[in-house]
Design brief:
Oligomer: heterodimer
Helix content of chain A: 25-40%
GO cellular component, one term (chain A): plasma membrane
Largest interface: A-B, 24 and 17 residues
Order of helices and strands of chain B: HHEHEHEHEHHHH
Number of domains of chain B: 2
Radius of gyration of chain A: 18 Å
Number of helices of chain A: 9
CATH architecture of chain A: 3-Layer(aba) Sandwich
Function (chain A): Part of the ABC transporter FtsEX involved in cellular division. Important for assembly or stability of the septal ring.
CATH class of chain A: Alpha Beta
CATH superfamily of chain A: P-loop containing nucleotide triphosphate hydrolases
Number of strands of chain A: 14
Order of helices and strands of chain A: EEHEEEHEEHEHHHEHEHEEHEE
Shape of chain A: globular
Strand order of the largest sheet of chain B: 2-3-1-4
Number of helices of chain B: 9
Family (chain A): Belongs to the ABC transporter superfamily.
Number of domains of chain A: 1
Number of strands of chain B: 4
Structural class of chain A: alpha/beta
Distance between the termini of chain A: 12 Å
GO molecular function, one term (chain A): ATP binding
Structural class of chain B: alpha+beta
Protein name (chain A): Cell division ATP-binding protein FtsE
CATH topology of chain A: Rossmann fold
Strand content of chain A: 25-35%
Largest sheet of chain B: 4 strands, antiparallel
Amino acid sequence: MAALLDNTCHISVNSTYVNVEGRTEKFMERKRSIIQLFDVSKQYGAGYALKNITLSVKVGDLVFITGASGAGKSTLLNLLYLATPVTRGQIIVGGMNLARLSPEKIPYLRRRIGVIFQDFKLISHRSVFDNISLVLEAAGQPPAVIKKKVEEVLERTGMTEYMNALPPSLSGGQQQKVAVARAVVGDPDIILADEPTGSLDACSAEVITRYLMEYKEKGTTILIASHNTALINSTGFDVLYTLEAGQLAQPGENICAAMNPIMGNETRGRVS
Amino acid sequence: MRSYVKRALENMAANVFLTATTLFTIALSVLIAGAFFLFFENAARLAGDWNRGIRVMAYLDERFTPRDLAGVTRDLRSIEGVKDIRFVSKETALEQLQKDLESSGVTLSDLGENPLPHTLEILLSPSLDTLDAVEAFVESAGQRAHVKEVVYGHGWVAAFLPMVNTLKTGALVLGGLFVITALFVSANTVRLAFYAKQEEIEIMRLVGATEAFVNTPFYLEGIFQGFCGGSVGLVILFFLFQGIRGAIPPEASLVPLMDIQFLSFPMMALIVGAGIFLGWLGCFISLKSN
């Protein structure tokens, strides 16, 4: 936490660390956006879960979305893979305008996005292996490829010995690892993670975090919704957005804004 | 396709109770509807026999000689509604009787003189399809030369005809109602079973599965359950039918009304097909409303 509040933060863009003062913009221009939100609002009944959100995420960035419970972090992620439709505004993901995406195209959008759900969303009567392989089966991959890839992610997440187990027989942490494995097995362009280490002990959280960072190194864009400052601290970030009551917080309104130099309503940097 | 079949089988194995409930409901629906069809088919067959024409026996008097045959036949043919006339001599009739009684051990050799009369077997046209018309024919034929007595051989069946016709209509109406009820019950059961899988479907969609990928195994499952349910219902119906037929004394089966037969092959195929349709329909409704 002390590190988070350190005012001598550095920016991380493509693993290049420089002093923040006055130099951030230059690095932002180097990469194209993979996610863009223009004045996006999401309404449930009379209330707004998100209001007038405009932001963009560049290819290969590690982006954190923070905020208190109910601030709209999960809703923001849900909008990106069309789990829920937007009420107003435009969202462009990987060049696809989600408002104009036909229902037949939605599966193809989702195959480019690996989602780590907060509640894991594992099929209880299917084995760990089958839960993970579902992504590749749905994408029409041949059985041999499916087997190889699933075994690989199981090994990387330390879940090989549980490959035949059913999710209800696993601990919360183990289920979360399965959820992570399923999210990455299809080599997605974007990983959306909703509290990805929420159910993990410190050691497992580190394993998973390191694993996710490997995907970032490969150029995968990662959006993590979390209020876990330890996680943010351990990974660093390219961009950090803070949500407050469905709106992006303005500079100086929160701890994250206070800890770093600001560009508009986003914070770029890495805890040094 | 193999992976779809595999997933459908896995789904059923994972939800044994739901699968069994669905299968049982479809089987029961098919059994009830099938029982009506069984009745309907037998009633229709009886009605069909009836419609092929009624046979009337005209017993000729003692003065009749085969030389008179042409005249008598011509006379009878002049009455409207005659389709065919066959002469059965008293000798042929006796032979036939002896043959019929052979199994019961009765012998007619001690009889001496043949007591049976010469007979004309008259097949009436199907156009005489009411009791009144048949009775009018019998009365008219009875007044012709050499005709001693006209026996309306199927008279007792005729008494059943209105009842059979009423039952046939009733069976159609009730059968229709049962089929509709069966349709709703089965489709609803499949739907309930389907709701248990809603979460799974949602997850599949979220990880990028197309509608075809999500739906195909469920349709296969519904069709398979429908096929099994239909077949099981039919097998139960067959055993029930055998039990009922076994309870009828063999002699009674000589009476046309008691000679019941199981469903024809096309009807069995139709019933199993209906089971498959029920399974498919349940899935279709569930997936459409999902």
